[in-house]
């Protein structure tokens, strides 16, 4: 996959040469993102996290195998692309299920401007039209009001709750699930 574009918004793979932008945006947003970020349970907490370069290699490997598609969210500012977040279509399953889930994060300086919703819509369209998925989920913490708004504005419907669903901020956290189904796939 090269990139997905919607006016000034571009979704494309994060590359080795993006390290300085990645490091800067992650450092500025450490406190903003930490309540929502996945963490490792005690079972594998001693396993080292990959370096930036190791992460890019892993993301490319997963994309090539069509298990997960992780893309930077970029916007055009002054003729340059600026990294403002990341979005992933992960857990891709074909066969009888034909489903996946979307996760994302956004730079706080660019939040509440519609970029995340646009990115979700763009990646959902790709999942439905190019991968011909039947169902895509967004799982989020119930107290994350901003993510609820993104899911709803992107046309996802609340399906229900998942108790102790994902390890976030050091513990197993409840999530709520929003779903969108592809009306074309029967």
From TrEMBL:
UniProt-listed InterPro entries: Acyl_CoA_acyltransferase (IPR016181), GNAT_dom (IPR000182), N-acetyltransferase (IPR051531)
Keyword line: Acyltransferase, Transferase
Keyword Mitochondrion on entry: no
A Gene Ontology term for the protein's cellular component: cytoplasm
Annotated GO MF terms: protein-N-terminal-alanine acetyltransferase activity
UniProt key word Membrane: no
Domain (N-acetyltransferase) ranges: 12-183
Transmembrane segments: none
PANTHER family found in the cross-reference section: [RIBOSOMAL PROTEIN US5]-ALANINE N-ACETYLTRANSFERASE, GNAT FAMILY, PUTATIVE (AFU_ORTHOLOGUE AFUA_3G00765)-RELATED-RELATED
Family: Belongs to the acetyltransferase family. RimJ subfamily.
Protein name per UniProt: Unannotated protein
Naturally occurring in which organism (per UniProt): freshwater metagenome
């Amino acid at each position: 996959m090269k990139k997905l574009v919607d006016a000034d918004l571009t979704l494309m793979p994060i590359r080795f040469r993006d390290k300085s932008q990645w490091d800067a945006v992650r450092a500025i947003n450490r406190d903003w993102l930490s309540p929502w970020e996945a963490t490792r349970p005690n079972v594998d907490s001693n396993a080292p996290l990959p370096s930036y370069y190791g992460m890019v290699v892993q993301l490319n490997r997963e994309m090539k195998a069509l298990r997960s598609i992780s893309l930077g969210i970029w916007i055009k500012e002054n003729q340059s692309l600026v990294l403002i977040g990341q979005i992933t279509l992960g857990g891709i399953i074909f066969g009888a299920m034909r489903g996946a889930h979307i996760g994302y994060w956004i730079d706080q300086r660019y939040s509440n401007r519609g970029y995340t919703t646009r990115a979700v819509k763009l990646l959902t369209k790709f999942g439905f039209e190019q991968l011909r998925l039947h169902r895509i989920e967004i799982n989020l913490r119930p107290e994350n009001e901003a993510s609820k708004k993104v899911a709803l504005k992107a046309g996802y419907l609340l399906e229900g709750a998942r108790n102790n669903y994902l390890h976030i901020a050091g513990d197993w956290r409840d999530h709520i699930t929003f779903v969108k189904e592809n009306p074309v796939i029967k």
